[in-house]
Write a structure and sequence with these properties.
The protein has 9 helices and no strands. By secondary structure, the chain is mainly α. Among the domains are: 49 residues, Orthogonal Bundle (Arc Repressor Mutant, subunit A), CATH 1.10.10; 43 residues. Helix 5 packs antiparallel against helix 6 and helix 7 crosses helix 9. The radius of gyration is 21 Å and the shape is elongated.
Length: 151
């Protein structure tokens, strides 16, 4: 870093982490912007240090995201978001377990907030199904919410 007025890479990382949790990949992407090629190795070493100290944790990040999204989205959408941020499938499964246990109740609450009642025709049913799908709920959960539970 040639510009002395520019904060160090370490300072930028600490500032970002003081505001919220980041996955390692997400923080790397954020800090990588504007770096020169010789600074990329420094970034990797810095991230390794932060992971070693427990300042960056994909597990903690996954739990925080799952907790923050629990009342609004289904497990499929949260899992996709976590995968995009570089969280491993094992950590995603761990973090989503509590979300899956309450997914039917969450889907019902989200559906009730958006719609006045059950669909009256196929067009309305399709609209409600698309809405719940966009929120990341499974087909089985959607069927149960809309009253076509064959169990």
């Amino acid at each position: 870093m040639t510009d002395k007025s520019r904060p160090s890479l370490r300072d930028l990382a600490l500032r970002a982490l003081s505001r919220r949790e980041y996955s390692r990949q997400e923080l790397q992407r954020k800090l990588r912007q504007g770096l020169e090629s010789d600074e990329l190795a420094q970034l990797e070493a810095l991230l390794d240090e932060f992971v070693g100290r427990g300042w960056v944790s994909d597990s903690r990040y996954a739990e925080q995201v799952a907790f923050a999204r629990r009342n609004k989205y289904g497990s499929l959408r949260v899992a996709q978001e976590l995968r995009q941020q570089g969280v491993s499938d094992g950590l995603i499964e761990e973090a989503l377990q509590p979300l899956r246990e309450s997914e039917l109740e969450t889907a019902k609450a989200v559906w009730q907030k958006k719609f006045a009642g059950p669909p009256t025709d196929m067009k309305e049913r399709a609209k409600q199904m698309r809405f719940l799908q966009s929120r990341g709920f499974s087909a089985e959960t959607i069927r149960r919410v809309l009253g076509r539970d064959d169990d």
